[in-house]
Amino acid sequence: MRNFIRCSNKSTTLMPKIKFLSLICLTASFCFLLYYIYSTNFNDELQILRTQFELKNQQILILKNEMAVL
């Protein structure tokens, strides 16, 4: 009978640890999801800025060529 009580005590002390570990895993998954969403949006914004920068450079080169012709 004592062995059975010891086992049940172990399972009751193990349960909070399992809940705590599952909470940590859930939090880590949520943080990773937020990081993934943020990084993809950030990469899209960087690509837009690069495109705008390249267009500005092309406009500057066109203006320089026009001024050289004049």
Structural summary, described in words:
With 70 residues, the chain is mainly alpha-helical. It has one domain (19-69). The chain is built from one helix and no strands. The longest helix has 68 residues, at 2-69. It is rod-shaped. The relative contact order is 0.05. The model has no long low-confidence stretch (mean pLDDT 81). The chain crosses the membrane at residues 20-38. Keywords: Membrane, Transmembrane, Transmembrane helix.
Strand content: under 5%
User: Mind summarizing the main beta sheet?
Assistant: none
The stretches of 5 or more residues where confidence is low (pLDDT under 50) are: none
Radius of gyration over C-alpha positions, nearest whole angstrom: 30 Å
Shape: rod-shaped
Count of distinct structural domains: 1
Looking at the chains present, what oligomeric state does this protein adopt?
single chain
Mean pLDDT: 81
Q: What structural class do the secondary elements suggest? A: mainly alpha
Count the E strands.
Answer: 0
| N-to-C order of helices and strands | H
| Helix coverage percent | over 70%
Distance between the termini: 103 Å
Helix tally equals 1
Properties at a glance:
1 helix; 0% strand
Quick recap:
Keywords: Membrane, Transmembrane, Transmembrane helix. By secondary structure, the chain is an all-alpha fold. The protein has one helix at 2-69.
